[in-house]
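Weekly sync, protein design subgroup
Attendees: M.S., D.O., the rotation student, P.L. (late)

Item 1: inverse folding check
M.S. brought a backbone from last month's batch and wanted to see whether the design step gives back something sensible before we order anything. D.O. pointed out we never logged the input encoding, so this time it goes straight into the notes. Structure tokens as presented (356 positions):
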């Protein structure tokens, strides 16, 4: 959960000094990139190359083993042919450095890494064609399958027992539902939580475990023109939510975020599902829980965005991107109901697969 003043706010001069001291680079161009909890800065040094300085929030910076595993995961995916960023060693040969800096809230410690810059446009800015949605589902399944093969001495840190963004921990939202007292959304949020506890939780023992990226959203997937009037995925960003979870959670997260960018959100599930199952078919328990899990991710996004805005009102525009579209889509999905939504998703997925 967000903590007030945990998000770094390095000034341009602090960024330039940090990059020069740690990496020997002279930044001729510095520009801010969006981020939920951390600070991402585009660096264009006179020495050549393009990079992203990623400054972790002060809370996550207290867990360097977790950041080490995330950094290793990015490198592991890159080695296996997926378009993930990699960290560059600093002048001491380390992939990350703990820096004590005052950003205006008193002196705090922040883990700093310099990552490769991946060119491309966020998937939020291009038409979400059925083919691109198919490729997104397939990429998400491929990514989690590769991550499951990863070996590292600190993998246990990914358990993250009380991580509020994990779909295993939906009941942790309950103390924040009061933010919606009297709102039409209050009833929907409480109903989804009830469905989750009574329907999904008993079936979880049949879900297949894996390591989740956990935030495969419309701002963390980059695309590039494919030369055929479409786009291909050219980058996977932000492993800050990575945790031990289940394959079906990643699929639900992917569908939910792609829905927020589509003019007809209900039509997203079929192509994404088809792409996922082309690589990793679902079992019956996973199929049965997909609908409630997609709704559950909408609840997480909406509730936590509202809470974060109460801490960081200056960052409201970015924090509420998904939430603004999500409120309408969540209500629409809930009103249509499980049977109707599942019928559309699974029939569309079958038809899409038949055409392949």
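Designed sequence read out in the meeting:
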């Amino acid at each position: 959960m967000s903590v007030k003043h945990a998000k770094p706010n390095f000034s341009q001069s602090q960024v330039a000094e940090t990059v020069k001291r740690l990496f020997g680079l002279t930044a001729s161009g510095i520009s801010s990139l969006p981020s939920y909890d951390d600070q991402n800065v585009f660096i264009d040094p006179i020495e050549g190359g393009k990079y992203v300085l990623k400054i972790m929030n002060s809370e996550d910076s207290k867990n360097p083993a977790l950041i080490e595993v995330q950094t290793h995961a990015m490198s592991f995916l890159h080695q296996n042919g997926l378009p993930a960023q990699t960290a560059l060693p600093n002048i001491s040969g380390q992939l990350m450095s703990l820096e004590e800096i005052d950003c205006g809230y008193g002196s705090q410690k922040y883990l700093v890494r310099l990552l490769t810059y991946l060119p491309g446009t966020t998937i939020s800015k291009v038409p979400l064609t059925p083919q691109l949605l198919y490729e997104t589902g397939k990429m998400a399944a491929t990514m989690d399958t590769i991550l499951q093969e990863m070996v590292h001495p600190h993998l246990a840190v990914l358990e993250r027992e009380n991580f509020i963004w994990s779909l295993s921990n939906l009941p942790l939202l309950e103390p924040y539902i009061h933010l919606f007292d009297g709102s039409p959304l209050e009833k929907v949020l409480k109903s989804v939580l009830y469905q989750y506890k009574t329907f999904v939780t008993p079936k979880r023992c049949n879900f297949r475990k894996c390591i989740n990226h956990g935030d495969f959203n419309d701002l963390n997937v980059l695309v590039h023109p494919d030369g055929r009037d479409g786009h291909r995925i050219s980058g996977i960003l932000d492993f800050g939510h990575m945790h031990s979870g289940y394959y079906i959670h990643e699929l639900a997260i992917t569908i939910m975020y792609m829905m927020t960018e589509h003019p007809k959100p209900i039509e997203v599930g079929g192509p994404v599902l088809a792409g996922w199952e082309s690589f990793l078919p679902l079992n019956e328990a996973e199929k049965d829980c997909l609908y409630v899990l997609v709704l559950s991710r909408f609840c997480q996004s909406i509730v936590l965005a509202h809470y974060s805005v109460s801490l960081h009102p200056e960052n409201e525009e970015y924090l509420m991107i998904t939430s603004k579209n999500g409120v309408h889509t969540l209500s629409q999905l809930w009103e249509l109901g499980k049977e109707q939504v599942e019928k559309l998703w699974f029939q569309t997925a079958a038809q899409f697969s038949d055409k392949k």
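Discussion: Residues 305 and 319 are 6 Å apart (CA to CA). The chain has ten helices and eleven strands.
Action: P.L. to compare against the previous round before Friday.
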